[in-house]
Amino acid sequence: MKTQQAEERECIIEMALTANTMPEIVAAEHRLREYITAHPEDRNIADVGEPLALRRMGLEEDAALSEKAA
Amino acid sequence: MATDDNSAGFPATQEQIGAELEQIRPLLEELTGLRSNWNGSVVLVENALFKGLKPYGCDIRIGNRFVEPQERWTTLIHEMLHACSAVYNRVDFEQNVGWEEGVVERLQCALRTEIFTRLTVHVDSGLLLQLDTEHPFNRYIAVLEQVRVALEAEDPAFYLELLRTPIKERYGFLLARALQLSAVRRAGAVRALSSANVILQRGRREGL
């Protein structure tokens, strides 16, 4: 893997694993989607999508509960 | 006996993946000594950014782009391990991402040979090496291995014990083990564990 790609990969993994707020999650998803499209041979990176998706689901659930309570 | 649609070249169906998970479940329950909470429901998700997803409920979701015959087996084992993990819930997982993902992925690597043998599944060893070498959760596995070595614990028994321990208690469980070591070994083990915990909680990479 070329150095630039490796650095991009590492950056995306870091973003995905530490994303906490919805803007951070959206940004990480965008970078991840772009990377997978540009590097279809590196599908392994999608393993990081699991904790990212779980965090999104959690925030969406919070938002739904807040809306219901309002 | 497992079937493989590789020769047909078509992506797997939801039913086929469900059947494969049904074969994996009893083997993992036997190997881990834990019961899976999987309810038999599999959902193939369009355009997902994940290979597999184990929600906190009882279903399993698979990204439809990542169902190639060779590589999906490691994903299915990984997700079924989450289904077996002790006290897998949102709060504990979000605060301890590495304590769960690192343990599960390491166990996937450790247990898959037995599962592949018993299901007569063949996955190319070169592909497995590539998947392992480039795995995004290697940062978690690396620090867990440092702790395992410092505690002089056996592999995969160390990880099986962690899987059987509720996620939020894994750090405390290992700290208790470290404090039982001799004075010479105790300090190193506690240091390794403290450093690892920074990485394993919340997914952050500081300290590496």
How would you sum up this structure, described in words?
With 70 residues, chain A is mainly α. Chain A contains three helices and no strands. The longest helix of chain A is centred in the last third of the chain and has 21 residues, at 49-69. Chain A is elongated and about 50 Å long. Chain B is mainly alpha-helical. Helices cover 57% and strands 5% of the residues of chain B. In chain B, strands 1-3-2 form a three-stranded mixed β-sheet, covered by helices on one side. In chain B, a hairpin with a 6-residue loop joins β2 and β3 (60-63). Chain B is globular, with a radius of gyration of 17 Å. Mean pLDDT of chain B is 91; it is low at 1-10.
Strand proportion of chain A: under 5%
What's the rounded overall pLDDT mean of chain A? Answer: 93
Helix and strand content put the structural class of chain B at: mainly alpha
**How do the strands of the widest beta sheet of chain B line up side by side?**
1-3-2
Distance linking N and C termini of chain B: 43 Å
Distance between the termini of chain A: 50 Å
Described by the principal axes of the CA atoms, the overall outline of chain A is elongated
Helix segment tally of chain A: 3
Rg calc of chain A: 14 Å
Q: What is the overall pLDDT average of chain B? A: 91
Uncertain stretches of 5 or more adjacent residues of chain B: 1-10
Order of helices and strands of chain A: HHH
For the sheet with most strands of chain A, the description reads: none
Number of E-state strands of chain B: 3
Q: What share of residues of chain A is helical?
A: over 70%
Q: Given the C-alpha coordinates, what overall shape of chain B results?
A: globular
Q: Count every helix of chain B, treating DSSP H or I runs of 4 or more residues as helices.
A: 9
Query: Which pair of chains has the greatest number of interface residues, and how are they split between the two chains?
Result: A-B, 26 and 31 residues
